[in-house]
Amino acid sequence: MSDAPIFGTIDQRFSDEPLPTGPVSFSKIAFVSTSTGADDDVFPAGVSVDPTSFLAVRFSSSNKAFTEKLGTGYLADAVRAVNAQLSPGSQAADITVIRVAEGGTLNETMANVIAGLRALKAAPIKINATPRLVGVPGYTAQRLTGVSALGLTNRGTGFTAAPTVSLTGGGGTGATATATISQGVASATVGAGGAGYTVATVLFSAPAGGGTRATATATIAGGAVTSLTITNKGHGYGPAEVPTITITGDGTGATATAVMTGVIEALTVTNGGSGYTGAPTVAFTGGAGTGATATGTVTVLANPVVAALPEVLSALLAIAVVDVDDSSRDAAIDAREDMGSDRIMPVGVAARVFDVDGATVVTRPMAPRILGLITRVDFQNGGKPFEPFANRQIFGLVGTSRAIEFDLRDGSVEGQQLLAAEVSIVVRGETDVDGAIADGGFVFIGTDNCASDGDLWQQIHQVRGADIIDVEHMRLTRQYLGRKISASNAEAWINALKFNLRDHKADDDVLGYKTEFKADENSPEEVRLGRLAVDLGIEEAPVFRVAKRNVRRYRQAVNDLVADIAARINASTIL
To answer: Are residues 454 and 309 in the same domain?
Structure first.
């Protein structure tokens, strides 16, 4: 019998309507760095050897209970830099800090920083927030010179175990390497000399794992092979591998057995070290062998902290502004060439600011100030990250680490060359100077990340805009997951995505959009497995970077003038 009333009411609630998404913030900042004199209880300094030692501390940039305990180092400067870009008393940034310990060497400190970045990747679940703007002040501009490779000039002989490799001299420290040995042929012992030989060819089997086979020549006396002379020991034979020797010629019966010796097969640099101005001396000890020699190659290495950033940024759907070598145009461009991420924006000039004492002018990283600027622009646009932030004032500067020449009309000046290489800049305004970016102050100019040339996602504000739409659509979609697939539920899900994009279009966040459900991408087999696919076309608004004026003479204006004169004269009455 039905439980429905015979005479009464029945209430039903349906959940197949499009759902809204809640607010999503993309203006939260995270800094990972050192800070001299910080309170160890509030901001403990993590070390790479103990991943549990890192603590993500989230606070408001206006909360003095935290800001006054950051000491005087990079983290303290970074928070002050962000606050300088915001309206005091009415705006504050949501900041997460992971403090790392300073090591005995720069390499040790950078190892701590990289471990701190890994801790940041895991931080959202602990701090109930996801930082989308990341900075590593103080540790992205260094260009380390290290040992990049070791080349064997003599493989040596007689090794029964891998020798210890030591690298000394060259002005640097910290470089280490390991050696791998393999077998070569020291000599060959004739077993049977055979008979009837006037000529004989000796062939060694090739190393099973790849390498160089040994070679030798035969000595013949009285028609027999009496000895073999090794002309190339070969290398690459395994520890227990003895090559077979085949002797061919016009005789028969000659045999021989190889006597093996160890040689150095390869050298692997395990730590490039830092500070090298010349090639180090390579020495080998142990392993019972002799005669091995090698030379080192020293090159400028990619900054290891910057190299570690893309993985973290991708996991967080975040971007990073990083300082690069600001000593010259070429140095900044060389550093940028080590980067290949659409989530990293390099800046090629440092900030000159008053130190915490308010009296001393010091050089500090520019990147935190750019992150503060991005936050300010987000706040001005309802907290959304779609707006570019180029051609905006950077506050709190008394100067830049070097003056960068800039002209709006001249592509050959240094500032334009840096921008062409995707290196952002900060330039000083000039009053009443044609081609200046502003009449005064210090202005940030930059739009591009380090994506490959011609990438459709090279403008970094578009990456941020796409990220927030991705997050919004993920949050919308998760409200429908777990429901049965029906036409109504599928329509509600797709309409929720469509209405989200409609609102972004209405706010000029995007130029346009298209949603499409294609039957050929949603086969019965896929639908039976609970899978639906929707095609989205979204075009983010580009930044206005170049204004082109095509100016020509306008003859019609002269015709209009002649007609006006004629009309006046001909209409006048002479009394």
So the answer is: yes
**Total domain count, the chain:** 3
- Per DSSP, the residues of 105-154 read SHHHHHHHHHHHHHHHHT-HHHHT----EEE-TTSSS---EEEEEEEEEE
Beta-sheet strand order (sheet of 133-135)? 56-60, 94-99, 29-33, 133-135, 319-323, 344-347
Q: What average pLDDT does the segment 345-369 reach? A: 93
Contact call for residues 420 and 411 (beta carbons, < 8 A):
yes
Which residues sit opposite 364 in a β-bridge? 351
pTM comes to 0.80
Instruction: Look at the alpha carbons of 285, 286, 290, 295 in this order and tell me if their dihedral is positive or negative.
Output: negative
Mean pLDDT, all residues of the chain: 92
Q: Are both 283 and 181 inside the same structural domain?
A: yes
- Return the bridge partners of 33, or none: 99
Residues 342 and 254 in one domain: no
Report CA 413 to chain centroid distance, whole Å.
27
The parent domain of residue 517 ranges over: 480-540
Same domain (yes/no): 272, 358: no
Strands (E), 191-289: 200-204, 215-221, 224-232, 245-249, 256-274, 281-285
User: What are the structure tokens assigned to 550, written together?
Assistant: 């095509």
**Of 265, 281, 300, at which residue does a domain stop?**
300
